[in-house]
Amino acid sequence: MNELTDIYKRIEYLRNKGVKMKEMADHTNMAASVLSSLYSSVLPTYIEQVKNGIGEEDALDYALSQVNNVSKKRLLVSLKELKEQLYQLEPAQVVGQKSNPVLAMLTEEMAHSTQDAYNYSGIYMSYSLSSSMQALKAEPYLICPSENNEYVKVVHNSAYNITHYGTCLFSNHQNAYLFFNEREAPQIALFTIYLQLPMYDFPHMLKGLYLSLDYNRNPIARRILFVKYSDSTSLDDFLELKGRIIPQEELTDELLPYYNYTCQKEDCIKTCSVPSPRLDASDLEREKKLLEI
């Protein structure tokens, strides 16, 4: 059963070169779900069992018992052909630059995300905890396809009247990732917003996590809430809106639930640099105590 290990290594090689599982499945005339189960569960479990001294037959039986869509009989019959077909498939050559599978995947997903953008396009008002005081921060965001429809454009107006432009990826109708650089080029200071996508069309509210750096350039994460303000994707309409810091005494009945959801003690996760010549486990405890102050 040496083919099993060879097949796993070949699939891993092709994936690292940017070849999609669906492309491999189409090339080998195999259902994508079956090939995915082989790669993600059956084959690594089989290899691990064999390394632990389990016989090949028992190792394969155990690995197959972990999934319900792979037939042992069909697998053993097709092993040789599957291996040959995978070795016939070669990744596309990147001309003029070194291939980076992560960048290639991001570029491809940017184009695919424009197909989902219509469901979330529009102007949103975001709510999160202010970094400077115990108050609600309200900032507008625009989500829409780019002018050439090559990626999803996102724009952010900060509470300090600074406009940032970025991009967004939608993943499997479950998650969205908004990426911005809050510094002028060539400096990079990324802030990222991770949103959960509800299972219905044209949601009026999205919730997630806002990941950035604090004033000391240390990582920080906060809850964030996106509330639909308008279906307009006009940049002019968006730029009329300004971000602001809303003190607790100015919270309205409409804003109070947003404050209670995003601005409580457990809604902010911080880290800090704790200098120590030891850099051991005691520093972790000391950091948590400092953050409680």
What does this structure look like?
- With 293 residues, the protein is of the alpha+beta class.
- Helix content is 38%, strand content 25%.
- It has an eight-stranded antiparallel barrel.
- A hairpin with a 5-residue loop joins strand 3 (152-157) and strand 4.
Ranges where pLDDT stays below 50 over 5 or more residues in a row are none
Class from secondary-structure proportions: alpha+beta
What is the number of E strands? Answer: 10
Percent range for β-strand residues: 25-35%
Give a quick account of the main beta sheet: strands, pairing sense, barrel closure.
8 strands, antiparallel, barrel
**Spatial separation of the terminal alpha carbons:** 60 Å
Oligomer type? single chain
Question: Judging from the principal axes of the Cα atoms, what is the shape?
Answer: globular
What's the mean pLDDT score? Answer: 87
DSSP helix count?
9
Give the spatial strand order of the biggest sheet: 1-2-3-4-5-6-7-8
The gyration radius over C-alpha positions equals 25 Å
Order of helices and strands: HHHHHHEEEEEEEEHEHEH
Helix content: 25-40%
Keywords, separated by commas or semicolons:
293 residues, eight-stranded antiparallel barrel, alpha+beta
Task: Present the secondary structure layout.
Elements: H1 2-16, H2 21-28, H3 32-51, H4 56-65, H5 72-88, H6 101-117, E1 122-129, E2 136-145, E3 152-157, E4 163-171, E5 175-181, E6 190-196, E7 205-213, E8 219-230, H7 235-239, E9 244-246, H8 256-262, E10 268-270, H9 281-292
Antiparallel strand pairs: 1-2, 1-8, 2-3, 2-9, 3-4, 4-5, 5-6, 6-7, 7-8, 8-10
